[in-house]
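Sequence and structure are kept together here, with a separate record for every protein. An example record follows, reproduced without changes.
>
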Amino acid sequence: QNISESKQKNWLLRIRLRIVVVFLLIFQLPYFQNLFGFSVVEQDFVWRNVGVALVFLGFLIAIWARSYLGRNWNSSPKIKHDHELVTSGPYHLVRHPIYTGILLMLLGSAITFGNLWTIAFIFYCIFYIYKLKVEEVLMESQFQGEYLEYKKRTKMLIPYVF
């Protein structure tokens, strides 16, 4: 059990370090772009920081959701042996909180940097909605009535909305 605890502590340390690094890079990115001659969308300090806050919030939501999935997580939609339906934590609010977090990060980037990030945000919204429909069919086939009940209680990406 010491090995398991050690792995968990190591994983938590890596996550904390990633959060700090991502936050620092995102917060400083507009200033580095100006330094190296990239163009940054001209906007006031408030909107830029709203965008940065959304990126950070999305990152935290995605990490939180990933930690709740545990061994059930997979980068591509497929059912694993002894797969469990997770409905607690962020999954109590929406069925796909990792995607919610990623889309929040893209929205924050679009607000902060504009043009290309806005196109990326729109593209990924369309792509993820399609991917989620595929995942939901897979989950319905695996968990049948239990998943249908879960779908009735929760929204796909935005609590109480969508």
Summary: Residues 115-153 form the longest helix (39 residues). The chain has a mean pLDDT of 81.
